[in-house]
Amino acid sequence: MISFILNNEDISTDQPAGETVLDFVRYHKDLKGTKIGCREGDCGACTILVGELMGDKVRYRTMTSCLMPLANAAGKHIVTIEGINPADGSLTPVQQAMVDESSTQCGFCTVGFVMSLTGFCLSERGRPRPQTAKDVLLSGNHPTADKEAAISAIDGNICRCTGYKSIERAACRVSEQLAANGKQFVPEYFAYITERLGDLNDSAPKAETRPVGSVPFVGGGTDVYVQKPEHMAESYATPLLYDEQLRGIRENGEFIEIGASATVTDLLESDVMNAVFPDLYKHLKLVSSTPIRNMATLAGNFVNASPIGDMTVFFLALDAEIELCTSPHVCKGDTRTLALKDFYLGYKQLARSPEEIITKVRFKKPSGDFRFNFEKVCKRTYLDIATVNTAMSASVTTDASGTLALQSVHLAAGGVAPIPLYLKETSAFLRSKEITEETITAANEIMQSEIAPISDVRGTEQYKRLLLRQLFRTHFVELLAAELTEIAE
Amino acid sequence: MKNIDSHSHVRGESVYLDDVPVVRGTLYACVFDSPVAHGKLKSINTNEAEKSAGVVRVITAKDLVGENQIGGIVPDEPLLADGEVHFQGQSIAIVVAETEELARKAAKKITVEIDELEPVTDPRVAAANESFIVPPKKFVLGDTAAAFANCAHIFEGRTEQNGQEHLYIETQGAYALPTENGGIKIYSSTQGPTAVQRAVCRVTGMPMHKVEVDVQRLGGGFGGKEDQANAWAGICAVATQLTGKPVKYALHRMEDMRMTGKRHPYSSDYKIGLDKDLKIVAYEATFYQNAGAACDLSPPVLERTLFHCTNSYYIPNVTATAYCCRTNLPPNTAFRGFGGPQGMFVIESAIARAAERLNVTAAEIQKANLLVDGDEFPYGQKAESEAVTSWTQADEKYDFTKLYKESDEFNASSKYFKKGVAMMPVCFGISFTKTPMNQARSLVHVYTDGSVAVSTGAVEMGQGVNTKIAQVAAKMFGLDIGEVKVHTTNTLRIANTSPTAASAAADLNGKATQLACDAIRNRLFDVAKDLVEAASVDDLSLEQGFVFRNGEKTTLDWNSLVMEAHLQRVNLSEHSHYATPGIGFDWTTAKGHPFAYHVYGTAIVGVTVDCLRGRYKIDYVKCCHDFGTSMNTAVDLGQIEGGIVQGLGWMTMEEVVYDRDGKLRSNALSTYKVPDIHSVPKEIAVLPLETTRENLAIFNSKAVGEPPLMYGIGAYFAIRNAIKSFTDCSPEFDCPFTPEKVLMNLYR
Question: Rounded to whole angstroms, how far apart are CA atoms B215 and B231?
Fold first, then answer.
């Protein structure tokens, strides 16, 4: 039995925990406003809001209902367009803005945009923030409640008709209204959801899980539901996304420790992470889209073992380690720790037993003049899967003679091998080397011998080699812009 | 005036195919399609599928009651493969089951025995084999052979153009319901309700009057549902005929991408000759169209490539030849522009090549050759040209010299980022080039409460045609648009429709609606004349819901007039027919006057290429566009912006990838990329061309669906120019310009 609130209705259902929320709302609840566009999280037509009780308030995030198992709806407030529509037939400010700007043509994608923009209005990011010292520090990289933020909130929605300009205009209008305050973006009943979710979570039985078949666990579902939709629809996989023991991002001694079910959005919104990575938003904006970032977990990305996993490459370049545990609940001592780079044995082969899950990810808190860069190129800059991605971390030293060198270099790349690749030889070569054109050229030679890209739909081998060479060079341009003007310019 | 559907769209209350309430007892179809691109189909084993849970019936070619044929122009496309398979994704069998999931499960249990044959995916290979669907087509103007002899400069080359996936967000689908006495009602997501009706009748053996096709709206079409909705309706109809039950099939995205055709890829050769003043004197082009495995709409697409092979330029000597090449890809089909963009890309490539060799900008050649009034197109029609005015007005507004200079100055001081600029004039003919299709009908009812209902053959797919038709009726009757309801497109109400295509639906159906309203209005005026004591009906008009006499409001309101007319037994309904006057084309001479009018425009496109990463951004597309006199600026602006971005997608990131075996590799949204919100230009500026010229468009408001797509072609040449300012190179003309091609050209 799975219990949650759907719009203004209390739901308890015996449908399989693996059934998607999309199929549930469309075909069991006959809520036809949520559309099916692709069933792989790439179009956003099925975007819904998921409200989670966080202390004394409900935090809403947009998700693509096509990839979301009912199991992850347990104890949540699930909102479809029918739960947003004013009962008197009128329009919310978001809907009105889209009408006023003619942001809808065929209308099939429209609801997804309405949900994404409504989610933005309800989110922290949608609220104008006072300019703190940190905001100033991050200005240009981290949007506050401005137009760019509103537009970024719809980065997971594809429209084939409008060319987006009219939708941009609507998003701008919405962000102005947010700044003006006093507008009501959702119906009255939302005011009582906190209380209702509290009651629900106190009383509802835990969702039944019967680990069967080849997928015993599910995190955000963003990959497994693309790969095995039919299998998952009938599964009772154990949900991990909202497992309290697998959440949280904190400093722990000399480490930064991240719960395995932290989503990309959790990272993005973490003060701890933002303090270490001033360009975090710039980097993570390249990773999928807002609703997918709201669902996709770090461990899910690691375990999926895609050779082009963005987060995997990111954390490989931090020389991160993972903690594995054989029981999904309460890991007391029987854990083991493994360097992330040792987790990958071959294409989709992991140093992991089927019962094991990742519980934590940790990396050494950087010290000294730490620099980090993440690069990713694909056919479409955003909301795409990398052709090649790469990340590099290093600390920069300058000796008495002004010689510039990199220490503790870690370089990783995706799309160039059967696994997300930690470039061990190249990293080693670069350590303590003076950074010159010759060093970069020589390092590239080593790197090219470490990789083995193949030609596929994302690009030819030749291109991937050239692209990695260029992105490797780009790391130096980005990391050493201040020091190496002749390279950076 | 906002799109009349926008309120229900934003509330998620608009109804699409998959939202039609399902009748109890409905079954679900799923197709088993060919796993290989070419082969002899020796056997189909459906035993396991038939035994699968919930399966009611498995249907193969031998079960069809009617003819196993859905080819409209050439009968070369079976509904279900029989004996041979010609592309990967070709339908072989239909599983009908109690649920969608059970149908899909069962379809996976079907096996086939196929003797594979060598697939052909390259149109030039097909041409070498003389594997043509229809005989080659040719346009000749003047004498190119003689003209080339006198040219100061001659350049030759080759271009490659990839296809484009429609990616309407609503996939294809149909829902068939049995009606009494052996009839069938079909809900279809189609641009061509009559085409669906014909196909259904053919495969079921039923007469057209027993088949009703109803279309509420489409979640996008773009040409992809002009002809290719037929198969799914046919499949559901056959299943309904054989089971006696309602049958529904809404395709999964990957099925849709795999089984349906796309914009035609072309491989082309060009030869261009210029005189010393950069006048294009002679132009030869040979087009090899990759038509796919069946005819579909390939011949008229091919013809439009020829019609637009000289774009906005006057060239006195032209020889253009086009081959419709049969390959083992899914049958390629209509896509916004309908072959026109492919013709334009080639002439623009030829000009770009000439410019680079002559060390001038392409803009200098483009400007020197723009059409003027009276210039003859290669097909004989004389231009009423706005090519020069659109260029000039765009230049006055946007200042081309300044934009080029800004780009040059930026490039001089930037190491890794380079800007590029290109001009893209467009001239696009409006009318179906097959003259008989330029007809439409409209049925208008005025009810006794004064409300108005309109039905036409036009299909609403986001382009706002229903809004424009409602505007026509509202304007004719002097009513608020809220008094007018445009109903579904239905073959019982409107018969023998042309598809909603060729940008012409608002013109044709709007004009028919205008005629119908005019007839009713005239009858109402006869009634009103005495009531308001007017000397003549000529003194009367309808405005603001009242009868006006000599421009002054009378006390006779619309509702009273309508009721009085009804009591006088005056007909308050009209079914009118419109056929575009003055058009025709003779293929025996390949000359004529095929188009009611042309739409003109000029765009300037600016891009920035990141030469470190090989990525790029489109900075702006600024155009001066010939709307005539737009009757709905909000709808028309939406068409321009949407068309431009779709054109940009075709030129940049949208790459249809088939492997050598004819298997689609870009088979999902994860591998086929259309523009997202971050990839659209920072600025799209649209300046309406100022012109007082009369035209044949509805209320002088020119067709706007297709022409703006071709402004996007400018992005290809802008990117190319940016690359050339980074490194000395001459990139091949091979679209789309993916980041891969950009980087490989930057560091070749």
Answer: 16
pTM of the predicted protein model: 0.97
- Of the candidates A33, A381, A462, which has its C-beta nearest B679's C-beta? A381
pLDDT at A117: 97
Does residue A331 surpass a pLDDT of 80? no
Question: Which chain A residue has the Cα nearest residue B634?
Answer: A102
Residue B721 CA to residue B605 CA, distance in Å, equals 11
Query: Residues of chain A with pLDDT > 90: what percent?
Result: 79
Residue of B3, B4, B8, B9 to mutate, testing the A interface (most A Cβ within 10 Å of its Cβ): B9
Distance from CA of A111 to the nearest CA of B (A): 6
Taking residues B28-38, report their average pLDDT.
98
In this prediction, residues A367-380 reach a mean pLDDT of 95
pLDDT digits (tens, 9 = 90+) for B179-207: 999 999 999 999 999 999 999 999 999 99
Distances in whole angstroms, Cα of residue B542 to Cα of each of A123, B305, B483, B551: 51, 45, 14, 9
Quick check: helix, strand or coil at residue A465? helix
**Average pLDDT score over chain A:** 91
**Domain membership of residue A97 as a residue range:** 93-180
Whether residue A384 sits in one domain with residue A269: yes
Tell which residue, B232, B227, B224, has the closest CA to residue B252. B232
pLDDT at A142: 38
> CB within 8 A of B97, min separation 6: which ones?
B27, B28, B30, B52, B54, B55, B56, B103, B106
B706 is an active site residue: yes
Report yes or no for ipTM above 0.90.
yes
**B651 phi-psi bin (left φ>0, alpha ψ -120 to 50, beta other):** alpha
Q: How many domains does chain A contain in total?
A: 3
**Every domain of chain B and the residues it spans:** 6-118+172-250, 266-433+588-746, 439-579
Residue A201 pLDDT: 85
Q: B6-118+172-250 adopts what CATH topology?
A: Aldehyde Oxidoreductase; domain 3 (3.90.1170)
Nearest Cα to Cα of residue B167 among B738, B644, B675, B652: B675
CATH of span B266-433+588-746: 3.30.365.10
CB B332 within 8 A of CB B261: yes
Mean pLDDT, rounded, of chain B: 97
Q: For residue B705, which of B610, B604, B635 has the smallest C-alpha distance? A: B635
